[in-house]
Amino acid sequence: xxxxxxxxxxxxxxxxxxxxxxxxxxxxxxxxxxxxxxxxxxxxxxxxxxxxxxxxxxxxxxxxxxxxxxxxxxxxxxxxxxxxxxxxxxxxxxxxxxxxxxxxxxxxxxxxxxxxxxx
Amino acid sequence: xxxxxxxxxxxxxxxxxxxxxxxxxxxxxxxxxxxxxxxxxxxxxxxxxxxxxxxxxxxxxxxxxxxxxxxxxxxxxxxxxxxxxxxxxxxxxxxxxxxxxxxxxxxxxxx
Lengths: 119, 111
Known about the structure:
The complex is a heterodimer. Chain A is an all-beta fold. Chain A is built from no helices and eleven strands. In chain A, strands 2, 4, 5, 6, 9, 10 and 11 form a seven-stranded mixed sheet that branches. In chain A, strands 1-3-8-7 form a four-stranded antiparallel sheet, with no helix packed on it. The N and C termini of chain A lie far apart (about 35 Å). By secondary structure, chain B is mostly beta strands. In chain B, the strands form two sheets. In chain B, strands 2, 4, 5, 9, 10 and 11 form a six-stranded mixed sheet that branches. In chain B, strands 1-3-8-7-6 form a five-stranded antiparallel sheet, with no helix packed on it. The interface of A and B includes residues 43, 56, 59, 91 and 109 of A.
């Protein structure tokens, strides 16, 4: 497709369960970001991939959160032992080169998000 | 997590009025991005700024990269009802890979 897609659009799970959230970036974009957005807040950075590698995972809140991008395109955000506080909208964004690159004209384009509800 | 100061937090305006909002940071930024987010959707990129002092327009929207590199401004001229939504700034701090978002400005336009 032309834009960033995310699946599922909604996920309801029980406390303690494991969830996976998927992101398909814009074709050809080397950089991919995950953000978390709580109600009434701006998106908060979680992790940044340049190709297959996580160049910056400093925003992951704890070791229950993990993300992969094995082939440099699709990414999966994985949350173990979910807690009620994990409930939020998880947003994915992609960009042609990524922030911190030599290019000075980076941008990022967002998907529609996955709304995660932990009961 | 860290968020940028964005003001005003919310505003009601009459259709046809001009709107101004701004975003400030304690850090120097290399890039400023402005987004609009509608309920249930992801943020949509409006304007990107890359140089201090840069002024860029996109239709009725105009944004500026502050000369100190610590702030940015977004203006909307002749607002219309579809301008309703939440506007976010996002900055890229020098020496990092991440973007930091503002707290958002909620705009409501009265017809």
